[in-house]
Amino acid sequence: MGKRKYVGLKQEFIDAKEKVTGQANYLDDLSFPGMLYGKILRSPHPHAQIKAINISQALKLPGVKGVITADDCPSNYFGLEIADVTMLAKDKVRYVGDEVAAVAATSEEIAQAALSLIKVDYEVLRPVTNVEESVALGALLVHEDKIGNVAKTYHFERGNVDEDFVRCDYVFEEKFSTSRVSACYMEPFGAIARWEHDGRLTIWTGLQAVFHGRNEIAKALGISPALINIKEPFIGGGFGGKIWIRNFHPIVAVLAKKTGCPVKIVLTREEEMLTTRPRVAPKMRLKLGMMQDGTMVAKQAEILADNGAYTWAASKILLNMSMRTDCLYRFKSTRTDAKLVYTNLIPTSGFRGYGNSQMHFALESMIDICCRKIGLDPVQVRLKNASRQGDTTLHGWKLRSCGLAECIEKAAQAIKVNRLPAEAQNGRIKRGIGLACMNHVSGNRGGDNFDGSSAMVRFHEDGKLMVYSGEADLGQGCKTVFAQIAAETMGMPVDHIFVMPLDTDISPFCYGTYSSRVTTVGGRAVQLAVQKVKDQLLQLAAKKMGVDSGRLEINDDVVYNRMDPGHKYSLAEICKYGIRTREAAELTAYITYDPPTQGNDSTGYGDYSSAYTYGAHGVEVEVDTVTGQVRVLRIVTAHDVGAVINPQGVFGQISGGVAQGIGWTLYENQIQKNGIPQNASLRNYILMTIKDMPKIEPILVETNDPVGPFGAKGIGEPTLIPTAPAIANAIQDAVGIRIHDLPITAEKMFWALQNHVKEGEK
Amino acid sequence: MGKRKYVGLKQEFIDAKEKVTGQANYLDDLSFPGMLYGKILRSPHPHAQIKAINISQALKLPGVKGVITADDCPSNYFGLEIADVTMLAKDKVRYVGDEVAAVAATSEEIAQAALSLIKVDYEVLRPVTNVEESVALGALLVHEDKIGNVAKTYHFERGNVDEDFVRCDYVFEEKFSTSRVSACYMEPFGAIARWEHDGRLTIWTGLQAVFHGRNEIAKALGISPALINIKEPFIGGGFGGKIWIRNFHPIVAVLAKKTGCPVKIVLTREEEMLTTRPRVAPKMRLKLGMMQDGTMVAKQAEILADNGAYTWAASKILLNMSMRTDCLYRFKSTRTDAKLVYTNLIPTSGFRGYGNSQMHFALESMIDICCRKIGLDPVQVRLKNASRQGDTTLHGWKLRSCGLAECIEKAAQAIKVNRLPAEAQNGRIKRGIGLACMNHVSGNRGGDNFDGSSAMVRFHEDGKLMVYSGEADLGQGCKTVFAQIAAETMGMPVDHIFVMPLDTDISPFCYGTYSSRVTTVGGRAVQLAVQKVKDQLLQLAAKKMGVDSGRLEINDDVVYNRMDPGHKYSLAEICKYGIRTREAAELTAYITYDPPTQGNDSTGYGDYSSAYTYGAHGVEVEVDTVTGQVRVLRIVTAHDVGAVINPQGVFGQISGGVAQGIGWTLYENQIQKNGIPQNASLRNYILMTIKDMPKIEPILVETNDPVGPFGAKGIGEPTLIPTAPAIANAIQDAVGIRIHDLPITAEKMFWALQNHVKEGEK
Questions:
Q1: Aldehyde oxidase/xanthine dehydrogenase a/b hammerhead domain location, by residue (chains A, B) (predicted)?
Q2: Which CATH number fits domain A281-445+601-761: 3.40.1190.20, 1.10.10.10, 3.40.50.1000, 3.30.365.10?
Q3: Which of A:156-215 have CB within 8 Å of B?
């Protein structure tokens, strides 16, 4: 392998210019002749019976072209694992924001006005507003057929936990919880639906996983998936919030059918805050058994997680929460009992980290707590127990690459360098450092026994290469990564490669953008497809040049004879030679790649991700002991990325993950009172701002994973995961206070500092 | 092979409902936000120097967003074989209709008004208005660099013509000519251009050959073809007139670039009459040598053909005119000298038959003339000389199938049955019958050494099949034919198959709809691609069912074990099993098919079409000896179609070819006076109407060609070709008058009848 020219080198995102000049078309930039605007009437009650709906006044409003209620919709239940939702509420609403009716009108304003003319007669019921209430004896039922309000339970056990705890020198037990937070992507979610004259349905929408989405919409509408064509415009972020369809997807299709016109629905920010499925919020009880020398032996967890009113991905997320951290260290035994329960709150679902982040907060906080109690160095304990390359973990993951130890060492080292004095302003400001580790996946052989990706590549007669993938670019830059992979594999410049827009009628079948899988699995498929078409091209060139194809190389768009570099042809010449001649060259390759993993058995044991990522964040914080305010000063982010494809892209993922991680840790929280959201607006839902951003010191560890393309692994989610516990650990280092429940707001710190002083005074 | 279920059976066109309900979107139905309307200023002079163009007043008209002249356009010459045209005239205009300037405005009306505000200062030159003037010594030059006004010449010779003529019992010589006629498709041609934010150009247009078109537009604009994406809406007919781009294609792209908006140009009917390249109009001198027994020995032709002002396909058409009829019969020797010359008239180009029809008129008229002179039965002479299956013709065609003799016999037989009395109304009406033969191609290994087609097929996870082809459906029904071929090959119903719209970014590379090649070559590619994906599917099914794939059959969407028909799965089940599992099935196949032909050598010798079609039309006419009016009463159309895929489609092609053939023979003619068109309007350009349609008696001969899919050959052009000479022969049979020059108008017949009477009186 020679020196790389495209992979790992600086490469501007191929769509950067369109985006920064405002020319890129996002969903709301699209418009079609005769298009109507849809709006959805939502429940103001967390729990109520629908007695009657009267749409007659709304229908009379000039400009209103259609009003639908559950009576106008297919009554199919849909959802992922547990189908418990209909597109419009039938007899009952179950959370504030639940969809009740929808309107299509000639303008957004008219549609909005029409909503207020729809009269719904509710019989208000008492809501279930937290998980404790949900599981209490004699609790109200959110769904009449879901006994005990339980959506899903898990039990996992490896080794003999009880025996191991008995033998441990130390056993500690703590409780943790994390909060409901919203993905808050820049671009509100939405869709345009148009029924075509041939009876098929076109939907423009920015889904992260279009082929899953196509199936779900088909299920909701009761039609065959191939009758639906999803086309993706540019997408302004997803972070897990756009993996799965929302109710508005089938709703907009029904509105379009009813009115005979294309209909657009784009959520307002308030609707996003009300209905974008937030991160699953669990209560976690954790028990950790350690030996005097720092060996971590046994781990036990109990989880009670909030599903909200309907089940989306929370059941899958609970699985990740239950298992993944068990593979971060070389535990001898582990046991988890997890339960997902209904409440009358917004349905929870996936958000960067997908359950793994929550348990990381618990475990990585716990390790520091235990080490402090025993008097061990938490960095050394982590190093001692770290999973390593070649390991098969407790749950059967095969670590084909693992740079955890190197990440710990480098992050611990770097965060100490240049650290500020432990105190300032006469002791008012206290500073501390902390570290936390993480692991995650690059793919997920989860529900189906498939975790692959397909790619198609095609040469045009002018030697330009088209790349088709079904993986979505949400802004993270996979189009650029695919172009770089194709460029490097073929030996041609990135700007001669076109990565085509996502369209389910055309793009090869893929699973989509989640589980940090796109670079690894999608990129690998692209690499293999390009290699396949390269073989076709070299065969052609060999024929044209009268040279064995083994002697040919391609560099910078030119095929040449290695033994006689002057003997050469451009790719355009070879393509022209192949395509419009007797050669009848296809110069098109299609490939479906499924990584060499086995998936889980019925106990959840098995190697189920193409690759596994590991990392460590070192954090320096300062705490204002008067106000309780925490500031993150610096963050060292050491990640085993396998190999870097696009340096700027990796740094973008790190910056974004750190920002969202800090937000989750210190600021964000969806507050409700009696089931009524209190801060469903960016006015009072506190996101971090650019001023809160610490200095980031990225450390990239390249372990060259054997599965990923050019050795690369996913970096999308990992950058968020260790941020919260690292901050919590640094806070304890600074002021000796341990916060077990996110977010660590200034108010919470203020009262903790007050109590801490009092305890100290005792 | 079992009984066929889809191929050869009645099948409604899959897009019939959309079309007859007016829902299908043709180009002019499309609209995009911010779209402007383009109009082209055309030369009113057949030949003039442009001294100056002043656009300042046009630019001031409110609503005008851009005005372009040659100065705003890339100055590349483009065209097929001979690049002699620029998108807007530079210094000189060369025919009435030549493009001088273009406007984009917010409405068609404003754009039209703006044209009249553009002031062009012309210095009028004397025009060259016919081929004789063009080749006369000292003729004015249409293009300064084209000496003698010659665009192209051909000389072909096989055997020893001169020697053979000496040995023949009879040698006759006659002159023939055919006229300029317009394709007159229902939907005027046009295009919408939009420059995308990534710098690529999207063009919506109904081209017959999109990949050729993409290259030509790229050449005109001076950009790489892969930067252009051509998308096809529904198309309302082409007949050869939409194979190649027009000047408006690059013009609309330049207007869109200049204004930064999408721009639409749709030609008016008058613009169509002025600029749609008409059928090449030749003067033909034909010499035929026969033996007493009717053996046709030698043929010699001289052709002087009118190219018009610029060269489009006329040079290729001249080639067909020069050669094809030589392969209709078993001539011993043949020689053709052909010359294509410039005039200041509309550039001529392709129209159903593509040159072959013109020489058929000459030769098939000539045979009847000769037979009458010698006293032979022209039907028997044709039968005696007919080319037959297994022949290699004078020009090297290999006749893998040929049903000519059967067509002659059946047509001759059928036209005699039920014929009306030879006279009516006391001799005022005279009736006669005539017959003429034809041959044609199903494909054309012409310019490039490729004559293939590509197809991609893909199963979706619900078992529905998508078919992608780059061949265009102009209304002739190839989408339906492809769906039937796919259905038959796979064993699934037509309505589970989606034939996707044509889009150069997606559709596989194909040559397009011309040379009657789409069913044969395009259909074969579809058949092979479906067979390939079927093999993938059967392998999967074999695995799932634990049965050798050789035992499996597919019928009506179900895969079953031939030995145990109860053991079965639906295609949907097999696809689901393959796609979302460890099988990682691609279920996608791409194929490029090039028929097993060799192409021509430098002398034009060689087997260059996938298949060759033969046929014969028998016609019964009546002539009103007072008015000269000719009426076609009945037409028997016997065609060797290889095999029928869609019976209705074949009959549609027959009806259309007959109608256009009668129009060409009796009515249509583009008249000019000093280079100025006199009937550029459907008011005075006489098309035949439904009232002129004769009763059609179709006879389909199935020779099961070994190359075509299920044995099928092309039927698009053949149905027009023998119509004109058959009518001319029937006229001679009715009234003893031979017309050598098309069209055979009532006026022409009137004078001929007058002269005939006078000659009779002498």
A1: 21-126
A2: 3.30.365.10
A3: 197-198, 200, 211, 215
